[in-house]
User: Which sequence fits this backbone?
């Protein structure tokens, strides 16, 4: 039911809200690089990750900062 409501809203011209964070593979896809390159950027301190999670979570603001 929620999927139907979401698709109705998108068809009505509403904009889908931006994501707050991405996992490793999603961040790599957004940047157009490999997941291992994202790991390297995190390890070198060029890309900040969200602390306290088992998996690498990258804030969307970090992706925007990196490409700006």
Assistant:
């Amino acid at each position: 039911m929620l999927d139907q409501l979401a698709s109705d809203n998108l068809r009505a011209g509403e904009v889908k809200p931006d994501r707050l964070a991405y996992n490793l593979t999603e961040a790599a896809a957004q940047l157009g690089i490999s997941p291992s390159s994202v790991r390297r950027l995190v390890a070198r301190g060029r890309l900040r990750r969200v602390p306290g999670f088992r998996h690498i979570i990258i804030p969307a603001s970090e992706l925007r900062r990196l490409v700006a």
Notes: The chain has a mean pLDDT of 84. The chain has one domain: 19-67.
